[in-house]
Amino acid sequence: MEAKQVAIVLLAAGNARRFGSDKLMADLGGAPLGICAGRTLAGVDAAAHFAVCQPKADISPHYADLGYRIVDNPRAAVGLSASLHLAVDAAAKTQAQALLIALADMPFIAASHIHALIAACDGDIMASLDGNQAMPPAIFPRATWPLLLATQGDAGARQILARARSLAAPAGSLRDIDTQDDLAASKSRPFGLDPMI
């Protein structure tokens, strides 16, 4: 598949309860943490770029500046499924033949891996592999979008990805930031950053 056939959606509406403050606005390398993945994905020449955010989120203008269309999620408390449903709704309004889902709290995703995921998508769901677990970023062909619409609660697409094909990502690039300790560790010991980012 080609990038121009893919709608990219960055999920950025989480409540960051474990972090204790607005995680996506926390400083990482002189920029908001949530912008790191946003910049990487904005560099992909996709059919569309969407960011699912809580209404009036401080991070939203930053994504808009990168060219993302902002999708407000007023039901973020429902869990990740609410954002997935909005992602599908947004992508369905485009001509995209696949939907690439990424998480805003994964600042080290590699541009080379995103391009590899897209190229590997030939009709099957493709997940990223950290060596043990299938996870986002993941790409869902249009025929599989009803599976995303059927998700409930905060588990997201975990069960779907467990059965998906997977592609190994560069070491450390799938690390997410859930706590203040995660952020501190990321600043003091950089994780396998891809030089293409």
Structure description:
It is a single chain. By secondary structure, the chain is α/β, with parallel strands linked by helices. The protein contains seven helices and nine strands; from the N terminus they run βββαβαβαβαββααβα. The strands form two sheets. Strands 5-4-1-6-8-7-9 form a seven-stranded mixed β-sheet, with helices on both faces. Strands 2-3 form a two-stranded antiparallel ribbon. Helix 2 links the parallel strand 4 (48-53) and strand 5. The longest helix has 13 residues, at 80-92. The protein is globular. The chain starts with 5 loop residues before the first strand and ends in a 9-residue tail after the last helix. Mean pLDDT is 89; it is low at 191-197.
